[in-house]
Specification:
232 residues, mainly beta, five-stranded mixed β-sheet, 4 helices, 15 strands
Length: 232
């Protein structure tokens, strides 16, 4: 029997993506609708208590999770044409400091030898997509659901390439990471939760603070048109 390859491809693009952690925890479906500035962003999704204590990651894009990027660090502030290891602390500094696992070089970045477990990782979806994620264990009550997003080399008139002269961490980030948040209730979930931006990460990745002024952001706010969550 011959298979229609075109139909299979369409089905694969519209099917939800599942993480590998399927062990009786709560399911959370994240629906991303791409915006006009979407271009392979890096992002992490995680849960915190209402007091701001890190609970667990839910999803992390593979480049950050493994420390391996499309363009490796070639040294002397240069980038290789080949893929490989790179250290980019400005990518998702808020998430990494919340996770609070230090690398030997003093950063909080995962490495190829010590990556974030692949239970929580996957490729950046190219299309508007659903991610169905599962908590490590059953949860009840209210929690914070957060997403930090960053798209490299995304400069504008405020976050321009002379703002932090010669700082390679800033130059690969430009407009800093944006942090989105919504509070969810596992015991009495709403039909749909909408995540909204609450601030940004450190532009050179030197701390894990939340900076609440996002008035200078432009295209970074258009990476996703909307981000919604549903507790299953």
């Amino acid at each position: 029997m011959k298979l229609n390859i075109k139909i299979i491809a369409i089905l694969l693009l519209t099917m939800p993506l599942f993480t590998k952690a399927q062990n009786g925890g709560k399911n959370i479906e994240i629906t991303f609708t791409n915006g006009k500035s979407h271009n392979h962003p890096t992002f992490a999704i995680w849960l915190e208590t209402m007091e701001g204590k890190f609970v667990q990651p839910l999803f992390v894009t593979q480049s950050l999770a493994t420390g391996t990027y499309l363009h490796a660090d070639a040294g002397n502030k240069q980038w290789s044409r080949d893929s490989g290891e790179a250290r980019r602390p400005a990518t998702l500094p808020y998430f990494l400091h919340k996770r609070n696992i230090k690398a030997p070089d003093g950063t909080y970045l995962p490495t190829p030898k010590k990556p974030i477990p692949d239970t929580y990782t996957g490729a950046t979806p190219k299309q508007s997509q659903n991610l169905t994620l599962t908590t490590d264990k059953p949860l009840s009550g209210r929690y914070k659901l957060l997403i930090e997003i960053n798209q490299p080399w995304d400069f504008n008139e405020i976050w321009h390439n002379n703002l932090y002269v010669d700082n390679v961490n800033y130059l690969t980030s430009a407009q800093p990471s944006l942090i989105y948040l919504v509070e969810i209730d596992f015991d009495a979930p709403s039909e749909i939760y909408t995540l909204n931006p609450i601030g940004h990460g450190n532009p050179i990745g030197e701390d894990g603070k939340l900076y609440t002024d996002i008035s200078g952001f432009t295209t970074a706010l258009q990476i996703f048109k909307s981000i919604k969550a549903t507790v299953k």
